[in-house]
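Operator note (shift B, R.M.): manual run for DinB family protein requested after the automated queue skipped it. Running by hand, logging everything below so the morning shift can see what happened. Input copied straight from the record, untouched. If output looks odd, do not overwrite the archive copy; leave it for review.
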Amino acid sequence: MPSEEDPRTITDQPRGERAVVEGYLRHYRKTFELKLQGLDPTQLAQRSVPPSSMSLLGLLRHLAGVEQSWNVRALQGRHDAPRLASSGTDRDDDFDGAEGTQECVDQAWADWRREVADAEAWLAGDDYDRVVDVRGDEIEVRDVVVHLVEEYARHCGHADLLRECVDGRTGQ
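Run finished. Output pasted below as returned.
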């Protein structure tokens, strides 16, 4: 994609901790979304290398769950919220349940977009200095946001390699 068409182009350099960190998070979310653009359900569900069950669709389902877990469970304190695409006992449910059907793809995108929108709305009114309890550890909201940047950065790397395996496309 030509640089002038890149939706991640930054026109104003963000200033301050919050603007910078949330800018990186938005950038990585958009990068991840671009990695999956233009693929059909079969391509999205294509597995990497055995025995791994990792796929682009699995990553999408995983990141929807990550968004929900950190936003709904950690920041909002709603620990009883049902988990997305997960039995709660198998950490690979996001990947193992990623079927190459339009229904599965539509559900994964709907979940991810809903969770991202909810997280952005919640975070806009939250205080980075607020301390939350995450499984017995007290952490600041800023730590959650930095962890999300970290999570997306790691999975954008995975997505880059997976996309190259699917159709040879690199970049973004």
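Quick read of the result: The CA atoms of residues 123 and 166 lie 35 Å apart. Helices lie at 17-36, 41-45, 56-75, 93-96, 102-124, 141-167.
Leaving this for review. - R.M.
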